[in-house]
Amino acid sequence: MNLTGANLSVQAIWDQVTAHRAEEAAKQRAAQAAAKAELDKVHEAFDERVVQPDAMDKIAAVIRRAVVNGEKEALVLRFPTDWLPDQGRAITSHDPEWHRRLEGFPKRAYEFYEKELAPRGFSLRVAVVDYPGGMPGDCGWFLGWKQAEGG
Q1: How far is Cα of residue 95 from the mean position of the Cα atoms in its chain?
Q2: Co-location of 127 and 71 in the same domain
Q3: Rg (the chain; Cα; Å)
Q4: For residue 103, is it within any domain?
Q5: Are residues 105 and 84 in the same domain?
Q6: What are the CA-CA distances from residue 4 to residues 55, 73, 142 (Å)?
Q7: Integer distance in angstroms from the first to the last C-alpha of the chain?
Q8: Domain for residue 150, yes or no?
Q9: Range of the domain at 8
Q10: Burial (0-12, 13-18, 19+ Cβ within 10 Å), 31
Q11: What stretches of the chain show up as alpha helix (H) in DSSP?
């Protein structure tokens, strides 16, 4: 409703404010629902992923950049802790069996690490890398390498 001289009253003002607030709240709910639906699609696609045949080449490229920068580890995987079955609790509590709770792509990625990377001397450190609003945000997987003793 537009305020005019003919309908101007305190009640008309409050009716307009209430209607505007309701309209804005509905827009916000719709935007949140659309964002959640999109995130759910991304999560589903992530969870269905498989480790690609060129994974070793991609990991090698990430590690090359880290080595050139003097790093001793490289971030190779990052995703929301909400995508873990326990929302990252096993990781934040430093449970040595954290990997047993994995499902979907994270499970396949861990199996790839065990089969292909651990035998080559790489270590895996998994940590929550941010805490938006004080809550666990993203989970980061870091491949590490250290010099062999005597080397």
Answers
A1: 20
A2: yes
A3: 24
A4: yes
A5: yes
A6: 67, 67, 64
A7: 79
A8: no
A9: 1-48
A10: exposed
A11: 10-48, 55-68, 89-92, 104-112
Q: Which three-class secondary structure state does DSSP give residue 81?
A: helix
The predicted-structure confidence for 87-144, as pLDDT tens digits, reads as follows 989 999 999 999 999 999 999 999 999 999 999 999 999 999 999 999 899 999 999 9
110 in Cβ contact with 126 (< 8 Å)? no
Do residues 86 and 136 make contact, with C-beta atoms less than 8 angstroms apart? no
Specify whether 92 is located in the same domain as 108. Answer: yes
Kindly state whether residues 25 and 56 are assigned to the same domain.
Answer: no
CB atoms within 10 A of CB 71: 14
In tens, the pLDDT along 40-90 reads 899 899 989 999 999 999 999 999 999 999 999 999 999 999 999 999 899
Domains of the chain: total: 2
